[in-house]
Specification:
This protein is of the alpha+beta class. The protein has seven helices and 13 strands.
Length: about 280
């Protein structure tokens, strides 16, 4: 019975992992960033090469610094996970799923953790309370951002809570109750207004292109772009090529690398206008 349960759990996690959709450049901006550090950060795209990842020593994935592990199943919410490197990134709703995949597409993302950090704030009555962020992202330049995920109707309520957390110095609390001020450089709120289904669907192709693109096809496509006008349709790049699936993946790979950019936001398909970066 125990063996059967483990197989069932493995298959469930595998199905959840197959939902690793991703989305295009510019689909999500952390425009609700609070107490952001000075200086500009280029969050977008992928800067991890497949050759570098293939030489990395394999480690069994774990949940890293997560202060809690969500239940695998729940009747009323979408539970599951994705991976960032060897870290399991949990989600407890479809919105959190979309946000976690948005973050995976950002350039320079060095570390992504779910259910972390647990921070302390003071309410109107002067009582110390705790809040656990949904995600914690750290970039290669050392910038650390704690990210809360809520639906749009709860925006104002959540922004007030983030203000309290910032006023308290973004003070983290470990499992022993010890307080550590400044566990993040900034906090951010992401809602369903930013993490849309269109962005979620586009994300699948971006993340897939990182592992499945053909370097030779990308080089051919790059040469074709030199002869294209300033703007052109996605579908124009598919004309006269075979197999089209390989060319399509190469297009997404160049979007991911920032060589190509969609002219407008939204779902990317054959009719989307593109331009060279």
């Amino acid at each position: 019975m125990l063996h059967t349960h483990k197989i069932a759990k493995h298959l469930y996690l595998k199905r959840a992992g197959m939902q690793e959709l991703s989305f295009p450049a510019g689909s999500l901006t952390l425009n609700d960033l609070h107490r952001a550090p000075s200086g500009s950060i280029n969050y977008r795209g992928a800067d991890t090469d497949r050759a570098e990842r293939s030489t990395t020593v394999w480690r069994e994935p774990d949940h890293g610094l997560a202060v809690r592990t969500p239940a695998l199943k729940q009747a009323k919410t979408a539970r599951g996970h994705v991976f960032h490197g060897d870290t399991v990134i949990y989600h407890e709703s479809e919105l959190e799923h979309r946000v976690s995949l948005v973050l995976k597409t950002y350039r320079g993302l060095a570390r992504l953790i779910s259910q972390y950090p647990k921070v302390e704030y003071v309410d109107d009555d002067g009582t110390a309370r705790h809040h656990t962020f949904d995600y914690f992202a750290e970039w290669t330049d050392g910038t650390r951002i704690a990210i809360a995920v809520k639906y749009e109707p709860k925006r104002e309520e959540m922004l007030q809570l983030l203000d309290r957390i910032c006023a308290n110095g973004i003070t983290g609390v470990d499992k022993y109750g010890a307080a550590t001020p400044g566990v993040a450089d900034a906090v951010a709120l992401v809602t369903d207004a930013q993490a849309t289904y269109e962005a979620f669907e586009n994300a699948f192709f971006l993340l897939s292109s990182r592992d499945h693109h053909d370097d030779a096809e990308c080089a051919v496509l790059h040469n074709i772009l030199l002869k294209m006008p300033d703007t052109f349709r996605f579908g124009q790049l598919l004309l006269g090529c075979w197999p089209r699936a390989k060319r399509r993946t190469a297009i997404w790979r160049l979007i991911d690398r920032g060589v190509l950019q969609p002219v407008s936001r939204g779902r990317i398909d054959e009719l989307t206008w593109l331009r060279r970066a």
